[in-house]
Amino acid sequence: MNRTLGQFYPATSPIHTLDPRAKISATALFVVGLFLVDSIAGFVFVAGALAAVVAASRIPAGPFLRFFKPVAPLVALTASFQLFFSREGEVLLSWGFVEVREGGVRLAVFLALRILLLVAAAGLLTATTAPLALADGMEDLLSPLKKMRFPAHEVAMMTSIALRFIPTLGEEAKRITTAQAARGADFSGGGLLRRARALLPILVPLTVGAFRRADELAEAMESRGYKGGEGRTRFRELRFGPRDLLAPLAAVLILAGGVVL
Amino acid sequence: MRLELRDVRHVYALGTPFEVAALRGVSLGVEPGEILAIVGGTGSGKSTLIQHLNLLLEPTSGEVLVDGADARTLNRGELRRRVGLVFQFPEAALFAPTFAEDVAFAPRRMDLDEDEVESRVRDALRTLGAERLAQRSPFSLSGGERRRVAISGVLAMRPEVLVLDEPTAGLDPATREELLGVIRALRDGGGTVVFVSHELDEVAEVADRVCVLERGSIRASGKPAEVFYAEESAHAPATVRAALLLARCYPEVGRPVSFDETLATIRGVLEGSR
Predict the structure, then answer these.
(1) C-alpha–C-alpha distance, residues B200 and B194, integer Å
(2) How many Cα atoms are found within 13 Å in the side-chain-facing hemisphere of A238?
(3) Is residue A126 located within the same domain as residue A249?
(4) N or C of chain A: less Cβ packing under 10 Å?
């Protein structure tokens, strides 16, 4: 119900029901493989295949395109760097000391496509996977690292707790803000310093409240017998079925197609 | 000052799939010098309603009148100073290193000179019986003490109408009694108090008028005796329930509401039957 909680877009689709581990590994393979694609035909093929998967996920184009908004400036900036500062290939255009060369255009287009496809893949993952399922999946995928003393369970637990408390803290911030507004606090106007100081009456109680909540949560977890990840079972068991194998397989096939073309 | 809500509706998240109608056409006046209690179950719209009294929330439709003028035409800061709003668990919003500084937050925003700020802080803390706490840190004291200081923080604006959302929730009986005493004293000093409560027994003790909200509409409003005796139900203060039981055998009981009234009635019945 909360739209601010990540980019999860609840819907019923074959992509949503895939095992999170399948989706995470497929996305990882896809992202790494993207750097091997090196032709326009290859990019068109990969983008088309990804678009087909997005269509299958039943996420409407509008919300999906919104994922690109925050990265648009980055794409524009890096692409223009390639465009103007590359010294490869023939000169296509030149105004004074600024020249655009063929190799620069090529690099700019490829780089922009790569970033956009990367964001699209990551967006698809977070849009079709509930944040908690994502954290569970990460825990399982990272668990081989436990042998190297990497705290996979703790990292996943911290991630899911953090995700769980974002809306709670958001509500608390809103409540404190209205309470201070009732006491005449003014959060608009003034310079940067004044504005930062105006936030103090919100940030202090919010931080104190967060620590109090953390204490209470720790106590509640302990009183229910939580003692770390060792031997702990899950409420929602993840099941990796044959269908889930299709996701990484599809990622590999799509990229193989992209590389060959 | 006289406040009036006229057919106020409030819808949260209007125009989204999460739309919730919290108030469905509420008309209510707050008369100067009265203690108005707003009671109702969880989710009945009490908290939404009181936030309209100083326009922290604006009505989706309908209007809020301040002495007959549309509140939206008034200066917001000025309105929030004249109608002081204390939220539920106000101690959660304490932030300054000492209580005195926290209470001074609101008066400092009013362009008063330092002497005036100080005298307001002292008065407000004294009213709540928290003077001795002035130099203490908010994070080292009990819930009841922090509640007193948080209420002082609004009182220091010297509002004409004080609005309290469940001021006694979670307090020990002694602090609760004291707080009800403060509410009475404020009214006796010429102020107006609106307070939200779940606790009908305390409403019976202090309220001059009661307004019962149910699912965003007013189910009943009027003098406590009128409201509490209007329908026989378990939703009445203990005093009223006792009087109703007594009235089955002694019809002369009448309609006492406060503890003292009920005590006097019972005494009268006992003496009469002797």
Answers:
(1) 15
(2) 20
(3) yes
(4) N
Q: Is the pLDDT of residue B107 over 70?
A: yes
What ipTM did this prediction achieve?
Answer: 0.84
Closest CA–CA distance from residue A206 to any residue of chain B (Å): 8
Q: What is the least distance, in Å, from the CA of B99 to any CA of chain A?
A: 13
Local confidence pLDDT in tens for the 261 residues of chain A: 344 445 788 888 888 888 999 999 999 999 888 888 888 888 989 999 999 998 988 888 888 888 888 888 989 998 888 888 877 777 777 777 777 888 888 888 988 999 999 999 988 898 888 888 888 888 888 888 888 888 888 888 888 888 888 888 988 999 999 999 888 887 776 778 888 888 889 999 999 999 999 999 999 999 998 887 777 777 777 788 888 888 888 888 888 888 887
Please choose, from the candidates A6, A135, A1, the residue with its C-alpha nearest in 3D space to the C-alpha of residue A67: A6
Residue B162 near residue B186, CB atoms below 8 Å? yes
Contact residues on chain B for A1, CB-CB shorter than 8 A: 18
In eight-state DSSP terms, residue A57 is T
The count of other CB atoms within 10 Å of the CB of residue B226 is 14
Of the candidates A172, A175, A183, which has its C-beta nearest B106's C-beta? A183
Nearest CA among B121, B128, B127, B191 for reference residue B156: B121
Q: Is A5 helix (H, G, I), strand (E, B) or coil?
A: coil
Tokens of A26: 């497929």
Q: Answer for the pair B214, B40: CB distance below 8 angstroms, yes or no.
A: yes
CATH architecture of the domain B3-236 equals 3-Layer(aba) Sandwich (3.40)
In chain B, what are the domain boundaries?
Answer: 3-236, 237-274
The C-alpha atoms of residue B63 and residue B50 are separated, in whole angstroms, by 14
Residue B86 with chain A: CB contacts under 8 Å = 182
Domain containing A92: what range? 20-130+239-260
CA distance B11 to B22: 6
Among B12, B18, B95, B137, pick the best mutation site for testing chain A contact (most A Cβ within 10 A).
Answer: B95
- Measured CA to CA, the distance from residue B131 to residue B154 in angstroms comes to 15
Number of domains forming the structure of chain A: 2
User: Which residue, B77, B53, B47, is CA-closest to B65?
Assistant: B53
